[in-house]
Amino acid sequence: MAAKTGMAKNTSATRTELTTPERILQSAERLFSERGIDGVSLREITTDSGVNSASLHYHFGSKIAVLERIFELRAQPIAEQRERMLSQLKLNRQGRPEVEDILRAFLRPALEIQDTADGDSFRMLRARLAFEREEVRRRVLDKAFNRSSQMALQALSIALPHLSAEELHWRFHFLLGSMVYTMAHPGRIESLSDEKVDTRDWENALDRLIHFAAAGLRAP
After folding, report:
1. Are 148 and 79 a contacting pair, CB within 8 Å?
2. DSSP string, 31-69
3. Cα–Cα dist 25/159, whole Å
Protein backbone atom coordinates (compact mmCIF):
# COMPACT_ATOMS: atom_id res chain seq x y z
CA MET A 1 0.00 0.00 0.00
CA ALA A 2 1.59 3.26 -1.09
CA ALA A 3 1.85 5.80 1.67
CA LYS A 4 0.63 9.35 1.36
CA THR A 5 3.49 10.64 3.41
CA GLY A 6 5.75 13.64 3.42
CA MET A 7 9.51 13.81 3.53
CA ALA A 8 11.57 15.34 6.29
CA LYS A 9 12.31 18.97 5.52
CA ASN A 10 15.75 18.89 7.11
CA THR A 11 18.17 16.00 6.73
CA SER A 12 19.79 16.96 10.03
CA ALA A 13 16.73 15.74 11.89
CA THR A 14 17.47 12.74 14.09
CA ARG A 15 16.04 9.37 13.13
CA THR A 16 13.80 9.37 16.21
CA GLU A 17 12.09 12.54 14.94
CA LEU A 18 11.13 10.95 11.61
CA THR A 19 8.30 8.60 10.77
CA THR A 20 9.13 5.26 9.17
CA PRO A 21 8.14 6.43 5.65
CA GLU A 22 10.22 9.60 6.07
CA ARG A 23 13.27 7.58 7.08
CA ILE A 24 12.83 5.35 4.03
CA LEU A 25 12.49 8.32 1.69
CA GLN A 26 15.44 10.16 3.20
CA SER A 27 17.75 7.16 2.89
CA ALA A 28 16.53 6.29 -0.61
CA GLU A 29 16.99 9.83 -1.90
CA ARG A 30 20.57 9.99 -0.67
CA LEU A 31 21.48 6.52 -1.94
CA PHE A 32 19.79 7.05 -5.32
CA SER A 33 21.58 10.39 -5.75
CA GLU A 34 24.94 8.77 -5.00
CA ARG A 35 24.66 5.57 -7.07
CA GLY A 36 21.59 5.74 -9.29
CA ILE A 37 18.37 3.76 -9.06
CA ASP A 38 19.64 0.43 -10.35
CA GLY A 39 22.75 0.72 -8.20
CA VAL A 40 20.75 0.59 -4.97
CA SER A 41 18.90 -2.43 -3.63
CA LEU A 42 15.85 -2.51 -1.40
CA ARG A 43 17.97 -4.20 1.26
CA GLU A 44 20.39 -1.27 1.25
CA ILE A 45 17.53 1.20 1.67
CA THR A 46 16.04 -0.71 4.59
CA THR A 47 19.44 -1.17 6.25
CA ASP A 48 20.34 2.50 5.89
CA SER A 49 16.96 3.70 7.14
CA GLY A 50 16.86 1.21 9.98
CA VAL A 51 13.53 -0.35 9.02
CA ASN A 52 12.59 -3.86 7.95
CA SER A 53 11.63 -4.88 4.44
CA ALA A 54 8.01 -5.45 5.46
CA SER A 55 7.71 -1.78 6.40
CA LEU A 56 9.04 -0.63 3.04
CA HIS A 57 6.67 -2.90 1.13
CA TYR A 58 3.76 -1.84 3.31
CA HIS A 59 4.31 1.89 2.82
CA PHE A 60 5.50 1.92 -0.80
CA GLY A 61 5.36 -1.50 -2.42
CA SER A 62 8.44 -1.18 -4.63
CA LYS A 63 11.67 0.72 -5.23
CA ILE A 64 10.13 2.60 -8.16
CA ALA A 65 7.22 3.66 -5.96
CA VAL A 66 9.75 5.09 -3.50
CA LEU A 67 11.40 7.02 -6.34
CA GLU A 68 8.05 8.31 -7.57
CA ARG A 69 7.17 9.54 -4.09
CA ILE A 70 10.50 11.34 -3.76
CA PHE A 71 9.87 13.09 -7.07
CA GLU A 72 6.30 13.87 -6.15
CA LEU A 73 7.48 15.64 -3.01
CA ARG A 74 10.59 17.36 -4.37
CA ALA A 75 9.40 18.15 -7.88
CA GLN A 76 5.97 19.48 -6.96
CA PRO A 77 7.28 22.81 -5.57
CA ILE A 78 9.47 23.25 -8.67
CA ALA A 79 6.59 22.52 -11.03
CA GLU A 80 4.15 24.71 -9.10
CA GLN A 81 6.55 27.66 -9.09
CA ARG A 82 7.16 27.24 -12.81
CA GLU A 83 3.44 27.16 -13.53
CA ARG A 84 2.82 30.21 -11.36
CA MET A 85 5.60 32.22 -13.04
CA LEU A 86 4.57 31.12 -16.52
CA SER A 87 0.95 32.06 -15.88
CA GLN A 88 2.06 35.58 -14.89
CA LEU A 89 4.16 36.36 -17.96
CA LYS A 90 3.77 39.88 -19.27
CA LEU A 91 3.17 40.48 -22.97
CA ASN A 92 5.10 42.89 -25.17
CA ARG A 93 3.60 45.28 -27.75
CA GLN A 94 3.21 42.40 -30.19
CA GLY A 95 1.13 40.52 -27.64
CA ARG A 96 3.87 37.95 -27.04
CA PRO A 97 5.83 36.99 -23.95
CA GLU A 98 9.56 37.66 -23.97
CA VAL A 99 11.77 34.62 -24.49
CA GLU A 100 14.01 35.57 -21.55
CA ASP A 101 11.01 35.80 -19.20
CA ILE A 102 9.83 32.33 -20.25
CA LEU A 103 13.29 30.88 -19.71
CA ARG A 104 13.64 32.47 -16.29
CA ALA A 105 10.25 31.11 -15.22
CA PHE A 106 11.20 27.63 -16.40
CA LEU A 107 14.84 27.45 -15.27
CA ARG A 108 14.99 29.36 -12.00
CA PRO A 109 12.86 26.95 -9.91
CA ALA A 110 15.10 24.04 -10.93
CA LEU A 111 18.45 25.77 -10.38
CA GLU A 112 17.67 27.50 -7.10
CA ILE A 113 16.87 24.28 -5.22
CA GLN A 114 20.53 23.96 -4.25
CA ASP A 115 19.93 26.77 -1.78
CA THR A 116 17.51 24.56 0.15
CA ALA A 117 18.47 22.18 2.96
CA ASP A 118 17.79 19.07 0.89
CA GLY A 119 18.42 20.49 -2.56
CA ASP A 120 21.81 18.89 -3.15
CA SER A 121 20.57 15.30 -3.00
CA PHE A 122 17.60 16.00 -5.27
CA ARG A 123 19.76 17.99 -7.68
CA MET A 124 22.05 14.99 -8.12
CA LEU A 125 19.13 12.57 -8.27
CA ARG A 126 17.51 14.63 -11.05
CA ALA A 127 20.77 14.56 -13.01
CA ARG A 128 21.24 10.82 -12.49
CA LEU A 129 17.72 10.07 -13.65
CA ALA A 130 18.65 11.22 -17.14
CA PHE A 131 20.76 8.06 -17.45
CA GLU A 132 18.30 5.55 -16.00
CA ARG A 133 16.27 3.05 -18.01
CA GLU A 134 13.82 4.79 -20.32
CA GLU A 135 10.72 3.26 -18.75
CA VAL A 136 11.78 4.50 -15.31
CA ARG A 137 12.91 7.88 -16.60
CA ARG A 138 9.73 8.62 -18.53
CA ARG A 139 7.39 7.27 -15.87
CA VAL A 140 8.85 9.55 -13.21
CA LEU A 141 9.65 12.68 -15.20
CA ASP A 142 6.43 12.70 -17.20
CA LYS A 143 4.37 12.66 -14.04
CA ALA A 144 6.47 15.31 -12.32
CA PHE A 145 7.16 17.83 -15.06
CA ASN A 146 5.00 17.34 -18.16
CA ARG A 147 2.45 20.02 -17.26
CA SER A 148 4.99 22.77 -16.53
CA SER A 149 7.08 21.81 -19.57
CA GLN A 150 4.04 21.94 -21.84
CA MET A 151 3.22 25.40 -20.47
CA ALA A 152 6.74 26.56 -21.29
CA LEU A 153 6.54 25.11 -24.79
CA GLN A 154 3.21 26.80 -25.41
CA ALA A 155 4.60 30.16 -24.30
CA LEU A 156 7.69 29.71 -26.47
CA SER A 157 5.56 28.85 -29.49
CA ILE A 158 3.76 32.18 -29.08
CA ALA A 159 6.99 34.09 -28.54
CA LEU A 160 8.72 32.41 -31.50
CA PRO A 161 6.13 31.97 -34.25
CA HIS A 162 8.84 31.45 -36.90
CA LEU A 163 9.69 28.04 -35.43
CA SER A 164 7.88 24.88 -36.49
CA ALA A 165 6.67 22.58 -33.74
CA GLU A 166 9.41 20.09 -34.60
CA GLU A 167 12.14 22.73 -34.49
CA LEU A 168 10.86 24.13 -31.20
CA HIS A 169 10.86 20.69 -29.64
CA TRP A 170 14.45 20.08 -30.76
CA ARG A 171 15.59 23.39 -29.29
CA PHE A 172 13.71 22.68 -26.07
CA HIS A 173 15.49 19.32 -25.95
CA PHE A 174 18.85 21.10 -26.04
CA LEU A 175 17.63 23.52 -23.36
CA LEU A 176 16.75 20.61 -21.08
CA GLY A 177 20.17 19.08 -21.64
CA SER A 178 21.90 22.33 -20.69
CA MET A 179 19.75 22.67 -17.59
CA VAL A 180 20.36 19.14 -16.30
CA TYR A 181 24.10 19.32 -17.01
CA THR A 182 24.30 22.62 -15.15
CA MET A 183 22.37 21.13 -12.23
CA ALA A 184 24.77 18.17 -12.10
CA HIS A 185 27.86 20.34 -11.51
CA PRO A 186 30.27 17.90 -13.21
CA GLY A 187 33.21 20.28 -12.68
CA ARG A 188 34.50 20.17 -16.26
CA ILE A 189 34.50 23.93 -16.78
CA GLU A 190 36.02 24.46 -13.37
CA SER A 191 38.93 22.24 -14.47
CA LEU A 192 39.23 23.76 -17.94
CA SER A 193 39.12 27.32 -16.59
CA ASP A 194 41.62 26.65 -13.78
CA GLU A 195 38.77 27.21 -11.30
CA LYS A 196 38.04 30.70 -12.64
CA VAL A 197 34.46 29.67 -13.43
CA ASP A 198 32.20 28.44 -10.65
CA THR A 199 29.03 26.80 -11.93
CA ARG A 200 27.79 26.34 -8.35
CA ASP A 201 26.90 30.03 -8.35
CA TRP A 202 23.40 29.22 -9.56
CA GLU A 203 22.27 32.84 -10.02
CA ASN A 204 25.21 33.58 -12.30
CA ALA A 205 24.67 30.27 -14.09
CA LEU A 206 20.98 31.07 -14.52
CA ASP A 207 21.65 34.46 -16.13
CA ARG A 208 24.22 33.01 -18.50
CA LEU A 209 22.07 30.03 -19.41
CA ILE A 210 19.12 32.31 -20.19
CA HIS A 211 21.32 34.47 -22.44
CA PHE A 212 22.72 31.41 -24.21
CA ALA A 213 19.38 29.63 -24.63
CA ALA A 214 17.54 32.73 -25.82
CA ALA A 215 20.05 33.16 -28.65
CA GLY A 216 19.63 29.55 -29.69
CA LEU A 217 15.85 29.71 -29.57
CA ARG A 218 15.74 32.91 -31.61
CA ALA A 219 18.09 31.63 -34.32
CA PRO A 220 16.62 31.36 -37.81
Report:
1. yes
2. HHHHH-STT--HHHHHHHHT--HHHHHHHTSSHHHHHHH
3. 40
Spell out the per-residue pLDDT of the chain, length 220, in tens: 444 456 655 444 555 688 999 999 999 999 998 888 888 999 999 999 999 999 999 999 888 899 989 988 888 899 999 999 999 999 999 999 999 999 999 999 999 987 776 677 788 888 888 777 888 888 888 888 999 999 999 999 999 999 999 999 999 999 999 999 998 888 899 999 999 999 889 999 999 999 999 999 999 9
Q: Report if pTM > 0.85.
A: no
Sign of the dihedral through C-alpha 200, 176, 79, 131? negative
The CATH H-level (homologous superfamily) assignment of domain 71-218 is: Tetracycline Repressor, domain 2 (1.10.357.10)
| Domain residue spans of the chain | 71-218
